[in-house]
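Write out this protein's structure.
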Amino acid sequence: MADAGLPTGWEVRHSNSKNLPYFFNAANKESRWEPPEGTDVDKLKAYMAQNTRKPEGKIRAAHLLVKHKDSRRPSSWKEQEITRTKDEAIDILKGHQQRIQSGNIGLGELAQSESDCSSARKNGDLGFFGRGEMQKEFEEVAFDLEPGQVSGVVDTASGVHLIQRLE
């Protein structure tokens, strides 16, 4: 097996439910989404590029979600009750968009602290998905993006999003 650049005892596994790789230590049964401390990042990137395949007909995207009081579930891991208006949510999202476009911060990094979606803990990464698996408005924009490209404001029943196609 190729060297994944992980510390002793760690291995790369694949989550069937999330359709994403994760890291597992058989000795202590610890699992995590982020590479463990001491990982050789360059070796891990090379290993992942060589050993992971994109599922047929699916793309991978990340997003930053800002909910508003009319969202289908106006609460999040950050706020128990979201009271902002849709216009306020759009203004917040446009501010995030400007920060991303300036090049000072990436969507994934910003999503960690600013997204109202629980995917924030994974840099907004939603994993791979195919057509018919996401809300129509979200899906149409995500599939039209090129890898690395970030959308403008996308309005869905969940709130307003910025979407970045990863693969």
